[in-house]
Amino acid sequence: MNIRFTQPALTGNEMEYIRQAMNRGRLMGNGEFTQRCQQWLEQMLGCRKALLTHSCTAALEMGAILSNAGPGDEVIMPSFTFVSTANAFVLRGATPVFVDVDPVNLNLDTKLVATAVTQRTKAIVPVHYAGVPCRMDEIVKIAKDCGAVVVEDAAQSLLSIYKGRHAGTFGQLAAISFHETKNVVSGEGGALIINDESLLERAEIIWEKGTNRSKFFRGEVDKYTWVDVGSSFLPSELVAAFLLAQLDSARDITRRRLLLWNQYADRLKPLFDDGVLRGPRIPAGVKHNAHIFFVITRTADEASRLLVKMKEQDINAVHHYVPLHSSPAGRRYGRMHGSLINTEELSDRLIRLPLWSDMTPRMIDHVVALIFQLFRI
Ligand SMILES: *Cc1c(COP(=O)(O)O)cnc(C)c1O
User: Fold this and answer.
1) What are phi and psi of 145, to 5 degrees?
2) Atom of ligand 1 at shortest distance to CA of 127?
3) Ligand 1 centroid distance, CA of 270 (Å)
């Protein structure tokens, strides 16, 4: 049985909304569908403002501009993350400071974050890996004490909850992804979440290519002009139309993924209990969105053998991630804070299993059976 690693969940209304956008004859960004997507995010998450972007990478770049991080400034982030977390700040000339992750939730180790702060710390970028939120109360406190901006990399955590509040609503800013590999998708897509009212006006300007066009649209100025740095960060209305159909189904998509995620956890429990493998651990006070199901093997060799075995059987599973601190660009542009032993071990031993909302329970059992064959107990 061939099992894909990921596959977008199509909900049925995408074509209808795209057709409506076409019929309106207004395809550039910031039209009705963009605004409806933004309202959905604002209401669902409970944030001050959402601005759709053409990717989460773009939203992180806006976050980097808004945090005023520049040459000589440091930005604390995990090394166990996707490149965009770091690139957004490197583009501004700032230095990523890579901090190790907590082996339980695979997110920034908050004790180490506190010791990584220097006078040059400008921002902290917690990443909610696998849709499991970071310990945001501690991170927000550390940032407050040192005057740093918190930009949450919430790429993977749409609809995840930490202590009763949505991931993406704790930092001054947060970035969400709608990339095809995420839970809710538009092919490429993202959003910048703005929780700090004082950053809103500048965020809109940066979003609109450095102009005050948003004010012009609202009738607050009678012509618009270049007022700040900015770029082309908006998605087209066609993309927003597709995304709105996805957002309409976001809760249903998440519910279906959670059922499959729980099936993996349940079936693999004997291997976890025997210490042969480790699975995700969801801390108390957290509701996750079933973005990723992974297993962690005891050795790097076992992880390689598991991947080979899956490949032979046409099951697509993958390693996650090559740590940024050991990558060529990470070494050039960033620096390590102490040893990053947990990050290195995870990178050698963590395998992401196939997970998408239209998988069948039979497919999950098929993947699990193969894992049992290899790690027979
Ligand atoms: C997917 C992802 C991104 C990038 O998202 P794009 O929408 O593809 O730009 C950034 N950070 C993390 C942690 C991600 O998982």
Assistant:
1) -60, -30
2) 13
3) 33
